[in-house]
What does this fold into?
Amino acid sequence: MTHWTILPILLPAAVASLLALAGRRDLVLARAASLASAVVLLLVAIGLAAAASDGTIRTYALGDWPAPFGIVLVVDRLSALMLTLTAALALAVLLHCANGWDARGRHFHALFQFQLMGLNGAFLTGDFFNLFVFFEILLIASYGLMVHGGGAARVRAGLQYVVVNLVGSTLFLFAVGLLYGVTGTLNMADLALKVPAVPPADQGLLRSGALLLLFVFALKAALVPLHLWLPGTYSNAPAPVAALFAVLTKVGAYAIIRLSTLAFGDTAGDLAWLAAPWLMPAAMLTLTLGMVGVLAARRLAVMISFAVVGSVGTLLIAVALFTQQAIAAALYYLVQSTLAAGAFFLVADLVGERRAKGDLLAAGPRIAQAGLIGALFLLAAIAMTGLPPLSGFVGKLLILDATRDAFNRNWIWSLLLSTSLLAIVGFARAGSVLFWKGGVIGEKVGAQPPRRTVLPVAAVGLLLAANVALTVGAGPVVRYLDAAATQLFAPAAYIDAVLGAEGENE
Amino acid sequence: MPLALIVILPFAGAVLPALFARTGRDAAALAAFGVSALALGLLLSLAPQVFGGDVVYAGQPWLPRLGLNAHLFLDGLGFLFALLILAIGLLVIVYARSYLPARDAGGRFHALLLLFQGAMLGIVLSDNVLLLLVFWELTSLASFLLIGYWRHQPEARQGARMALTVTVAGGLALIAGMLILGDIAGSYDLTLILQRGAAIRASPQYLPALLLILAGCFTKSAQFPFHFWLPHAMAAPTPVSAYLHSATMVKAGVFLLARLWPVLSGTDAWFYLVATTGLVTMLIGAVVALFRDELKALLAFSTVSHLGLVTMLFGFGTPLAAVAGVFHILNHAIFKAALFMNAGIVDHEVGSRDLRHLGGLAALMPLTATSGAVAAASMAGVPLLNGFLSKEMMLDAAAQAQWAGQGWIVPLVATLAAMVSVAYSLRYAIQVFFVRRHEPYRKNVRDPAPGLWLPPLLLVVVVMLIGVFPGTFAGSLVASAANAVVGAPVRGYELALWHGATPALALSVFAFAGGGILLWRQANTRALWQAAPHPQAKPAFDAAVAAVTDFCRAVTDGLHDGSLRHYLGWIVAGALVVGVGGFLGGGHAVGTRATLAAPPVAIVAWLLLVASCAGVLAFERRRMLALVMLGVIGLIVAFGFLYLSAPDLALTQIAVEVVTVILMLLALTVLPHETPRVAQRPRRLGDGGLATGAGLGAGAAAFALMTRDFDSLSTYYLERSLPDGGGANVVNVILVDFRGFDTFGEIIVLGIAALAVFALVDGARGLARTGAVPGMVAADRHPLLLAVAARVMLPLALVVASYVFLRGHNAPGGGFVAGLIVAIALIMQYVAGGTQWAAQRMRVDVHALIGTGVLLAAATGFSAWVFARPFLTSAYGHLALPLVGRVEVATAMAFDAGVFLTVVGAVMLMLASLGRIGRGPAKPLRTRAAIPPAAPRFAED
Amino acid sequence: MELLVASAIGVLTASGVQLVLRGRSFPVVLGLALLSYAVNGFLLASGRLAVGLPPLIRAAGPYTDPLPQALVLTAIVISFGMTAVTVGMAVRSFLESGSDDVDAPAASDGEEAPGR
It folds into this structure.
């Protein structure tokens, strides 16, 4: 039996508790512990991904109680992928925090670790009430991080973020109640078995519950019209936190993919793919409104936040097709857009800390290290808008190719391509205003660069490097994702692994 | 493999100039030159094979799943373009070295130039259309950065963005086109696509594919009506204009036309779309060029016109026309690059590019004048120069073209365009170099440094060599390129000076005559032009962009108006739609489960609940009152739990209720006690509607659930709780054992909540206004009676708590409730004794308490690892305690102890933190964003 | 009985939503509290109702469904933590801006950049 499976949850929990216990007076200690934990998490995640890459699904029965009665953790290709992505992003963000963000309030690193715990738990658990618990963990940690550093605008936005998500949590519980009340189970695999057997007399309630659950996930993923909270939240959050939040919306996307393919897929009889008809139009609208917002934004962080909304739309368009190829494409896009958004928020921070006007899109004196920061901005923008040569382009191609036979192919294509234009125009304007307007070649630079620049810049470099690796290694990466999608479309293996596994593993 | 290197070298080498720039402009230029020269050498080494008629392949799969392969191939067409790109690139690098201002070492410039070079080479050498797309967009990016190179000039920035917008838009269309093309052909590999022309032309998807691909080509090659970006791209440094915007990048579009010629050409759609666009562009470009006074603008429009010429030739779809097109690509690249460099020299030396202020330079700068005049003559199509030859071939092809069955339209328009191009070419040469200028130039004008005049001169030499000995110097190049375009050996043409008295010759003579007249009668033609309307592209474009932006702003600000109420409204409404919609989507039958009778007490409780809900709503503005009523509701709910056989819930509910109310009271010590009245009736109605809907939905769902039977996991828990879990209180066993992991998460939530509240309040220090905070926390108000009571109560509370804790596993109770009881008792000390008094006596660090609690819970979990069991596996034994009686001592209880500690710590920390508000220095209210201190404040606590 | 419980859940939900839609932080907090009562009731109801059958293993059953009770307990605790954070944020927000209004400027608005 392997305990590696649960480490991504327990390690950050332990580190966070220790930091709350001892580390809160010593910033250096906190940083070190936090970084170390992130590194270990990354290694463990990669290990789990490697172990999962052969197709075996590992389960971990907590308290040694057999599923569906106890809570069970499950590692398949998809969850391993999400763990790795989260760890990589977290590592970069923590490096960036060396520029002093973590000193602007209390308990930053403890909250950060708890956030990681919540994320990893959400990706690992095979029980949808336990999923609720981990959602709450990652949310409440994110509340703390969101208002880290304070400021009226930020706290106000934080309050909105909290209230919106509390309403979401309430809905989550209503949905849990409905599902339990009809199927009598909380275990996802068990649910997958029970759903087809539900008598017609109860299917209305079941559908209602399932859709409400997916609705809540859509709220986390910021699907129109449930996206309204996102721009205000991300653009007002501390930049590194916003960068970490880039993976938060993906939790929603993950949950939608997981539950749809597992319990409401081909095997679900009358309820097969019940989300699709709702998801597709909403996703297309999300993409549109997101990129429209990019062009409308007056602050760089706001612009990036709307780009995140747009990327969610793109991602869910592919998901909504619920074909294996499309899901694989969606997963690639998920990974790359997360890395891109993370990098971009960090770049926005580098820009903001060098300008008197912050990240406001208005001409100012030429910033310190304009060449370096400008180059990073360019790369991040390329990755975000899906221009070659970075992985955004590959991701977009994959999705375009995967939607080739979709019933609404022409709509999807014209939407994807035209909105890309909006985004490109928007970011071109932003770059031109921030780096070109004002200042001539060879001009003396006004502002001095901030004290610490190496690590913050290195963090961006790390994420962009990952993006490049994703592009160059697209072949093997997509092979893995294809396999992951295949696994999702054959849920029987998952169900056997969970319900067949009486606590023992391998 | 040299082929791959040709593409890789410029990309890899792009860093060198940036590095060497530190050691000076020569180093930077030299690095760039070396890289290009090396690539050129490699290319030439492959010349024999290509001229020998075979194709060189290289590359490897990249993303096979998608059909995106890094495959390159070099045939005649690719060779011609690669040669142009590298050779002219070399000259441009030399030229730029002297052209750029001395204070600019040019590291960035040469790096970007090399990046562009690599991308351009990628386009012309790709054997995979997706790969081609990658390089295609890269050239747009490079052009964007190079046009905006002089970032301080507004027109540079705007020109750059306009070019990017137009070319990228085309590029996006091209993506779709290529995807469709690949869809039809069943592969994205060019060589395969080229073999499936017939199938593709026959496919119903041919037309959409064609339209999308042409959109890409026409935007890139500045064809009407997408030509407007090119003149604005002239804000770029002249070397860039010479390289990207005349010789190479703008040729990418016509290159693609040539590349896909065997696949797409030969249909009516192709002929009318491509040939017509080319024809129109050729004429319009020429006419506008004639009336431009700014040198680079004139050249830009003439470029547009000549690109139109080439487009038209490929549009004809005949092999001979294709040959002419290929040949003119070569010729135009050479003489136009020379002309741009020439214009650059004039600008550089005289400081003006305005024809009206120039003149008589032949005497001052003979070398420049010579090369300029010859190049212009070639552009006009003067015999013995290369321009003449390809123009002859063009007119020849035009003479044979039938447009809508009319044989005269194309030749006429083509000749007109030729006529005008003669006029503007001569105008350029005469105005700049030969017309006498009245007042002398301010500074003394000379031929510049060799770095500037040599490159154009070399190009002009080539112009003449090809012009006189076309067969020798261009024969095999054009032949192999033409064969590659057509896909088969092309016969029936010869590159020669004299073809005899052909109709083309007649047309060309006619063109010269007309051109001369046009120039001679310039005044009249200008008057005509002034009279004619000229739609201005830039204002229109800017207006369009502005309109789109405004629209986006309107939409965005309208939706994201920052009103939480709207956001929540969308969510509630959405949930209703989805929930009800989902329900209606499936079957439903009324439940058959026997319902319970409702005793009077329940009815009374119900009435009380409804009443207090109404009360909360009614008195919501008087917050204290509302809070009291909330407490009442909480108690009723607890009562309900108790009645519905959930004693644990009742206990917890009451305990939580107390703490919650204390929390809110603390909040009310800061928040205003009154809510301002919201008047708008429609808003109230809307909210009411949503609320009612939600209520009905929730109630109905609950009722539907309760009135139907189901079987759940629960039997398992009821059976196993005592034997396997060691506890009679099943709920508690589930919490600490079966689903202990949930509880583990739950206490972590609590802990985080406490830390978050602490962080929030801690950050708010100094924001609070002293004196604003009454009773609860102020040190001075603590009635003796309460103080005594509280201190007596404390030990009592501890006993009760430990009792509740110990029996928890078998009877209602448990760590959570016990924790709350202790916390409340301790808080009473604060209330009664005041914070200082209590703080002095309470040495325990609540942060630590939380950490310890979580760690203890975790540790119990880990302990199972020792026995090779999963996290949180429990074991238990029995123990008899006085008073309490026989209790199970399960490891689960250690876990529960962890819960207990966390709860105490968390609740203490929350309440204490909120209680602390109000201490700290007075501070005026602010309504704008606060900038918190950036310095680490970890030292003090 | 079922009807009473169901309608009570409905009433709580409705009042909760009504309060949450107020533009001020304190009513919102009250509303969230009401909503959590409602949903806790709903969860308990999802295990069906039973009177006088607490899941304490003594005499032979029957017992009511214990699982929803456990879920509700978890939910109560979590929502308590959430309430605390919300209250903390409401207070902080009030101290920062001098108003307990929960509405923010429009999202794309650049005028109010957050503090660093």
